[in-house]
Design a protein that fits this description.
The protein is of the alpha/beta class. The protein contains nine helices and 20 strands. α1 runs parallel beside α2 and α4 crosses α5. The longest helix is centred in the middle third of the chain and has 16 residues. The two termini are about 35 Å apart. About 5% of the residues have low confidence.
Length: about 450
């Protein structure tokens, strides 16, 4: 009779000593709390984000904007007063203070490229008067680009750098960010946010501004090198503007990554993410080095326009688990709401998870568990790589964590004795819903079979 895989027959008596290993936890995951009010963000920091180990909460643009219920009105600034449909200046300041107190920094989605697309005179959410090229006590006609292209100054040819960065995206009045006045005004807005305690910025439509203009604006902000900056740089075929230009300012959002994740999880096979070429900078165009990359499965634009996995897809959670437990980039998690039309705002401003379309994706046990795995293992290498076909993969992160991803409907069974690289002990699955116990013997081998359900994952950590 063969001995069990973990049994050393020379040992007659075994004494187990239980101990805890002290591990410094990494916190680098950002949650995009899309369209959440300031009050709800503050409450969420205290009740969930801080305890779960999230590092940042990204809020929708907080400045005064045009009136309306659609989400995109937030991205048409009227002034830099902090009155929006999500709250007041006092509520914003209180949110930043409360979130910082529990270790969660606030990232502000920041609109610097443009103002509004209106052709009439109107009032914004703080009653500031504005028209397309005139903003009360702020900007006038000479503070905008008027590129003289296409009969309406619009951007149509994305292979033309001048047009992309000097004409109007979707008819939005394009700020002349090369001028001292505009740079000073935008720098003062960012400085005010920093003075309130924000931790950084996501720069909307960054590719429509030269990287040097962004750099000049950021240099007007105190301690700008310590801020977390992420820049929206979409890429397309034959476009001259590339993510590498913008790393002088901070991270860039890797849209190619979201596209590749959708393709591999839905059609080609997600095991190709781990071999023969590990997902990351080596994949070429559209990728930059890990420490300069912000990666995500989807965001508020892609969720509405296509080009990424949908939160309704059973593979969506698996893809988020993968990017959280892999070695590449800083991770953003979208937490949004269900909608019918792409422009729809939330059905109710107050967030009630599971009600009125609010999904609260960041609270899902698989995502919370993966954040914990990342926190204890991110400095560790990928080891003990296992694949079974093109849609199943497993790996350890040193001896601190092990993850198995099953991207097909049928269950995946790991036989007793499989080497998974963990230290000896009993572990509880933090990704599944049934708190499976995983036993590991001194050689890093499984004791007993491990079953991973279809379209699910198992993850354990020290």
């Amino acid at each position: 009779m063969m001995a069990p895989p973990c049994l050393n027959l020379a040992i007659l008596f075994v004494v187990f000593v239980l101990h805890k290993t002290v591990i410094s936890l990494l916190r680098d995951v950002n949650v995009q709390l899309f369209q959440w009010s300031h009050v709800d963000v503050a409450n969420e920091c205290e009740s969930h984000l801080g305890p779960a180990g999230y590092r940042w909460a990204q809020v929708s643009p907080p400045q005064e904007h045009i009136e309306g219920n659609a989400w995109w009105v937030d991205y048409q600034p009227v002034s830099y007063n902090l009155y929006s449909k999500r709250g007041t200046p006092d509520e914003f300041a209180d949110m930043v203070k409360r979130c910082n107190a529990v270790g969660v920094g606030i990232i502000v989605d920041t609109v610097m490229n443009h103002m509004t697309a209106t052709n009439v005179t109107a009032l914004g959410t703080a009653n500031s008067s504005y028209s397309r090229y005139s903003y009360e006590n702020l900007y006038n006609f000479s503070d905008f680009h008027h590129c003289g292209r296409n009969g309406n100054d619009g951007v149509y040819n994305f292979t033309d750098r001048y047009e992309v960065q000097n004409c109007e995206l979707l008819g939005l009045a394009d700020l002349a960010t090369e001028t001292t006045k505009v740079r000073d005004t935008l720098g003062a807005y960012l400085e005010h946010l920093v003075s309130l305690g924000v931790s950084g910025f996501r720069l909307d439509a960054a590719k429509h501004m030269p990287a040097s203009d962004i750099q000049a604006i950021l240099q007007r902000v105190s301690n700008h090198e310590s801020l977390h900056v992420s820049q929206e740089i979409t890429i397309g075929s034959n476009e001259p503007i590339q993510p590498e230009e913008y790393v002088i300012n901070g991270n860039v959002q890797i849209f190619q990554g979201a596209s590749d994740l959708e393709r591999l999880f839905k059609t080609d096979g997600m095991a190709y993410l781990v071999q023969p070429l590990a997902w990351g900078p080596a994949w070429g165009k559209g990728y930059v080095s890990s420490d300069q990359s912000t990666i995500f499965v989807t965001n508020h634009d892609l969720e509405r326009n296509g080009g990424s996995l949908s939160p309704a897809d059973p593979r969506y959670l698996l893809a988020n688990v993968f990017i959280l437990t892999w070695t590449y980039g800083q991770v953003d998690i979208l937490s949004g709401y269900n909608f019918t039309e792409t422009g729809d705002g939330p059905r109710q401003l107050r967030v009630e998870c599971g009600q009125f379309g609010w999904r609260c994706d960041h609270r899902h046990p698989m995502i919370v568990g993966a954040v914990k795995i990342r926190g204890v293992s991110d400095s560790e290498p990928v080891e003990n790589l296992i694949t079974s076909g093109v849609n199943r993969t497993a790996y350890s992160r040193g001896s601190r964590a092990f993850v198995a991803l099953n991207n097909i409907p049928e269950e995946w069974i790991f036989q007793s004795g499989t080497v998974i690289g963990m230290n000896e002990g009993n572990y509880t699955d933090v990704l599944g819903s049934n708190s499976t116990t995983v036993q590991v013997c001194p050689q890093g081998k499984l004791i007993g079979n491990l079953v991973v359900p279809g379209f699910s994952a198992v993850g354990i950590h020290q």
